[in-house]
Amino acid sequence: MPRTTTAPASPHDTPAARSVLTRRQALATGAAALGAVAWGLPRLARAQGDGKPLRVILPLSAGSGVDGAMRAISTSLAKALGQPVVIENLPGAGGITGTTQIVRAPKDGSVIGVVSNNHVVNPSVYKNIPFDSLADIAPITILGATPFVLVAHPSVPVKTVQELIALARAKPGVLNYGSSGNGTILHLAAAMFVDQAKVSIQHIPYKGMGPLMNDVLGGQVQLAVVAVAPAAAHIKSGALRVLGVTTASRVPSLPGVPTIAEQGLPGYELDGWIAPVGPAGLPKAELQRLYAAFKAAMEMPEARDALIAQGYEIKLTPAEPAAAFFRSEVARMAQVVKNANVTMD
Description:
Layout: E1 4-7, H1 23-38, H2 41-48, E2 54-58, H3 65-81, E3 85-89, H4 96-103, E4 111-116, H5 118-125, E5 137-139, E6 142-152, H6 161-170, E7 176-179, H7 185-197, E8 202-205, H8 209-218, E9 223-227, H9 228-237, E10 241-245, E11 271-279, H10 284-298, H11 301-309, E12 313-317, H12 319-340
Parallel strand pairs: 2-3, 2-4, 7-8, 7-9
Antiparallel strand pairs: 1-3, 4-11, 5-11, 6-9, 6-10, 6-11, 6-12
Helix pairs in contact: 1-12, 3-10, 3-11, 5-12, 7-12
C-alpha cells in the first residue's frame, strides 16, 4: 500500500549537452528570477485554496532523501498554498511506477510529483518507459541539491582519491564498490569515477541505502558513493573514511575534504537534486502558483532549516531554466551510462 501523509493547511491565506544550458547555468538562473513570480502568490493561492488538498506523489519509498525532504517542508508548503498537502509514496521500477501516475494526473494543479536524478537516468537504463521523461512533464522548480561523498572502509589503505586510483591501477579488479542499486544515481556516480579514473573496480549492487550502508560500515564492501547527510556521523566517528566530494566546489560541512575534480579528475561533478514537477500541459498560471508557493515555503525558517539540516542547498530554479536543466541532464546521463557501460539486469 502506498504511504500517504497529509500536512494541514494554515487557517490563514498567506562534456555532453552544451546545446542547452549547462547544469550550473540552469540552476544559477533561478536566483535572478525569484522575485518575478512571488507577487502572484496570494492571488494564485486563493484560486486553489478552497480546502481541496494538493496531492504530491513521490515515486520513491518512504525514508528516501526525497521523502524526507518533502515531509520536512510539507506543513510550510500547505501554509503557503492555503490548502492541505497530501504526500503519497508510489515506489517501484526506479521511480517509473510513481512517475507514470504523475504524467497521467489532471492538468489543473491538483496533483504534482517530486522527482530526483533517477528521472533523467531512467531513459538510458530502461528499455521500456510508458512516458517521455521530458515531453510528458512540466518542471516547476529544482528545489534543492545535496552533495555526495566517495567513502572507503578504514581497512582500505588509502586516504585520498589519488591514492585510491594508484591502488586500483596496481590491483585491477581487486577492489569493489557498493551502490543502492543497479542504474541508480549512486551507482552512476561511482561508475563515472571508475570510467574517468580509468581503473577496474567491481560493482556490488544493493537493494537500497540501508543494506549498502550496513555493509560498507561492516567492511563487506570497500567503497561507495553516498549522500553527505547519512554518512556524516560515520565520517566523524572514523567508521568511514571520506576521500572526496562529488560536487564542483567543497562542502561547507566538510571544508577540509577536497573535491574529486581537484584531485585529478577535472570535470567530475554530480549531486543529488529534487524537483517538483507536474504533468505536461499544466497551465502557466499553475506553474507560477506552485513555484511561488515553494518559494514562500522555503522562506519559512522551519522549512528552510529542515532542508539544510538534511544536507540540501536551496536552489528554487524557476520553471523555464528547470526544464532546460532536465534536458541537459538527460543528455549528460545518457553519455555517463554509455561511457560506464551500465546496463539493467
